Amino acid sequence: MQKGFIFGIALALGLLALLASYGLFVLENGSPNSGSTKILYYSPIQCGGNPWEIWYTNGGIFFIKAPTEQELVHAYYSNVYNVQILSFETKKVSDIVCLACSCPRGDIIIVSTSSSDAQKMLSLGWKEYSGWNTP
């Protein structure tokens, strides 16, 4: 009887923590596709052929140490397009990829940005992220 009670309390606390963290995300970023922010994704390609990698390779910006992809994406869109990226994450979508440089890497980059910045991003090849079944 006591084990079941303790398990129930632990489960309730876990769910409460999950809901609280989602609530903080929504408060900080607006609801996932509300009028204030938009969530977008991009399917990067292999061989350093993405716009931010080409920009970095061609001397568009210098870092003291090699930047992470997140730092590079933030810097590229901020400096070149005046787009403010609010959040950044990657998601693996496939283990199977072709070997050509024009092929996707097997992951997607998911960002959130303001609605006005999202329009710029959409014109640059980003797509609206609709959740679990994207792309």
How would you portray this structure in words?
The longest helix is centred in the first third of the chain and has 28 residues, at 2-29. This protein has a 4-stranded antiparallel β-sheet with strand order 2-3-1-4. The protein folds into 2 domains: 1-30; 32-128, no CATH class. The chain is built from 4 helices and 4 strands. The model is unreliable at 7-13 and 15-33 (pLDDT under 50). The radius of gyration is 19 Å and the shape is globular. It is an alpha+beta fold and 135 residues long. α2 (51-57) packs across α3. The protein has helices at 2-29, 51-57, 69-81, 115-123; strands at residues 37-42, 85-92, 107-114, 127-128.
Query: What is the averaged pLDDT score?
Result: 81
Give the tally of structural domains.
2
In terms of per-residue confidence, which ranges show pLDDT below 50 for 5 or more consecutive residues?
7-13, 15-33
Largest beta-sheet characterization: 4 strands, antiparallel
Report, as a whole number of angstroms, the end-to-end distance. 46 Å
How are strands sequenced across the largest beta sheet? 2-3-1-4
Strand content: 15-25%
* Tally of strands: 4
What is the global morphology? globular
Order of helices and strands: HEHHEEHE
Radius of gyration: 19 Å
- Quickly give the structural class: alpha+beta
Number of helices: 4
Give the proportion of residues in helices: 40-55%
